[in-house]
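Narrative of accomplishments. A recurring question from our advisory board has been how the design workflow behaves on a single, concrete structure rather than in aggregate. To address it, we present the structure tokens for one chain from the evaluation set, followed by the sequence designed for it. No filtering or post-editing was applied between the two.
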């Protein structure tokens, strides 16, 4: 029995790229804001890495969720 290929949406790549761009911008803002803060308010370096990774993950994940909402609306 031949395997059926899963159809990939044409909107997948643009939404993932948009999510990555938004994540990079938010991560840049976070790092800039964190570096410019002085004293006890600045986060340790490991926390910065974790937060940047979380920002990137959430941005791309939300972009995929938005794509799943947009696709059915586009088909109408």
């Amino acid at each position: 029995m031949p395997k059926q290929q899963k159809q990939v949406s044409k909107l997948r790549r643009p939404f993932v790229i948009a999510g990555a761009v938004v994540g990079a911008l938010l991560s840049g803002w976070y790092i800039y804001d964190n570096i410019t803060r002085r004293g006890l308010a600045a986060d340790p370096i490991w926390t910065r890495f974790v937060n940047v990774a979380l920002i990137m993950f959430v941005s791309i994940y939300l972009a995929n969720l938005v794509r799943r909402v947009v696709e059915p609306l586009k088909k109408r």
